[in-house]
Specification:
By secondary structure, this protein is α+β, with helices and mostly antiparallel strands. Helices cover 34% and strands 24% of the residues. The chain has 6 helices and 12 strands. It is globular.
Length: 334
């Protein structure tokens, strides 16, 4: 389907470079159904494959979702500021029949991209991060955000961590032993079957490590049940120059309680466009990312990486961990 380019009346020639870059990125990435540039939540210009003018109502719904998403990102940015891990630079929403991406460009300006993948529920053998169309579109939006920052003479924020993924000389090594593992069994654990708790405990302990997933939470009914972290590992000390280990751990415990409600609100906002339940949410900050993976039956996982170089690797490991709990976490089944 041919792309449809549009811009708001208030956009002048000063944005010609950005408009050309957005159009080129959309033409080069066929998985993107919609790609647009917003400032302060207001639509400026964009490209879509939604259809002809008779599809105007659907196009308007998508533009409205982009506006709502940009405002949501601004609110989440303020929430995450307490962790002292930098601004929110990329958000990924992965639903039942598509995904949405919102990447920061300059202050108060965002790219919003959308992938609609009918039939995605047939991809039962792949984890969420292995969906080729969605991963490719995510990388394309991130790369475009970097190009637009370059136009503004700003350095890359490395959204998704793809620019530096796999590089040598990492700040954090794998670490040995488990003497720095902090395990907390929260009050909600008493309400769950011991067999389920035992599986969750073994799984989280196996996946938490200093290199990429430094914090993991298994939650039920919007409450943390089990949390594991390696935040006190000595190799992570450079990440705690502005905040103590105990303060950041307490913040992540609170966030794990809130994340279920955040996911529910996003699901209600995006359901009309993306469709189905929210299965994955990525909150990518300047220094790492926070992940939400739905497990079904009012259960979900939260994970955290503090290393921007490991954002994509940590996401892949979260997908593996979620799939081990419940096949639903690997993708919708209809």
């Amino acid at each position: 389907m041919a792309v449809h380019e549009n811009h708001a009346d208030h956009v002048g020639s000063e944005f010609d470079g950005e408009r050309a870059a957005v159009t080129a990125a959309a033409e080069a990435e066929p998985a993107l159904s919609f790609l647009a540039y917003y400032r302060r939540g207001v639509y400026d210009f964009g490209v879509d494959r939604i259809g002809d003018q008779e599809e105007r109502a659907r196009r308007d719904r998508v533009r409205l979702l982009g506006r709502q998403f940009c405002h949501l990102v601004s609110r989440l940015d303020r929430t995450l500021a307490e962790a002292r891990t930098g601004g929110l630079i990329r958000v990924v929403l992965h639903g039942g029949s598509g995904a949405a991406f919102c990447d920061a460009v300059v202050p108060d300006a965002h790219l919003f991209g959308l992938v609609l993948t009918p039939g995605a529920d047939e991809e039962e053998r792949t984890t969420l991060t292995e969906r080729a169309a969605i991963r490719s579109a995510d990388q394309s939006v991130a790369a475009l955000a970097t190009r637009l920052r370059a136009i503004a003479h700003l350095p890359s924020a490395n959204p998704g961590g793809w620019e530096t993924a796999g590089r040598t000389g990492r700040l954090v090594a794998d670490g040995e032993g488990d003497e720095t593992v902090t395990e907390i069994r929260h009050r909600g654990a008493d309400k769950l079957p011991e067999g389920e708790l035992a599986f969750a405990r073994d799984s989280l302990r196996r996946y938490v490590r200093p290199r990429d997933l430094q914090f993991l939470a298994f939650c039920a009914n919007s409450e943390p049940v089990l949390t594991f972290d390696r935040l006190a590992d000595p190799v992570l000390s450079p990440y705690f120059q502005q905040i103590t280990v105990s303060a950041r751990r307490a913040f992540y415990h609170r966030l794990s309680r809130e994340l279920g409600d955040v996911a529910a609100r996003i699901n209600r906002t995006a359901a009309d466009v993306v469709g189905g339940l929210l299965h994955r949410l990525v909150l990518d900050v300047e220094q790492g990312a926070v992940y939400y993976y739905r497990l079904g039956s009012c259960r979900y996982l939260m994970g955290v990486t503090l290393d921007q170089d490991e954002v994509s690797t940590a996401d892949d490991r979260m997908a593996e961990l979620a799939r081990s709990f419940d096949p639903v976490a690997a993708g919708p089944r209809g």
